[in-house]
Design brief:
Blueprint (H helix, E strand, L loop, with lengths): L2 H27 L25 H15 L4 H20 L13 H19 L5 H29 L7
Helix pairs in contact: 1-2, 2-3, 3-4, 4-5
């Protein structure tokens, strides 16, 4: 990688991480970023790896920072951020799929969070709502943020020529 490209890669990654933190903060202000019922607007950014490979580590770092700022316990910071990393890494693989399937790139984030976050909430925070209820609420929140908002972001970027930035 050329030095100029490396600097561009790092700069874009830093911007993505910062956007993730800011959007999570907005969700926090609305009371939606953590707990059994959560909707992190920032999870819509999990479609960015389709266009920019640096988005994968950037989203992971942004999630770590967000979870620390939210006062998350170590288990939540670790596994919550890992769920976002898995979703982002799998979303990156969607660029190898046919064009018609690429808008679904937010689904790995939906699934990874729905599987990983409920046990974290139960064991780290003592959430007593029951596993399947928490799984449903986390799934629904992620479906809205990463699934729906992510798909809208995908089409907005696609229609406005993000390929020119790469």
């Amino acid at each position: 990688m050329k030095r100029k490209n490396y600097a561009l890669y790092l700069s874009r990654g830093a911007i993505i991480a910062a956007l993730y933190v800011i959007l999570t903060w907005v969700s926090t202000l609305l009371g939606l970023s953590s707990g059994v019922i959560q909707l992190r607007i920032s999870e819509a950014l999990c479609v960015l790896p389709l266009f920019l490979p640096e988005a994968v580590p950037a989203l992971f770092i942004g999630c770590i920072i967000s979870n620390i700022m939210a006062g998350g316990v170590f288990v939540d910071v670790l596994f919550g951020s890992f769920a976002t990393l898995i979703g982002a890494a799998l979303a990156r693989l969607f660029c190898k799929l046919p064009e018609g399937l690429r808008p679904l790139a937010g689904l790995p984030t939906v699934i990874s969070n729905a599987l990983i976050i409920p046990p974290v909430l139960i064991f780290a925070y003592g959430a007593s709502e029951g596993y399947f209820f928490i799984l449903f609420t986390v799934f629904l929140g992620e479906l809205i943020s990463a699934g729906i908002f992510g798909t809208v972001l995908y089409y907005a970027l696609k229609n406005h020529g993000i390929e020119k930035l790469m």
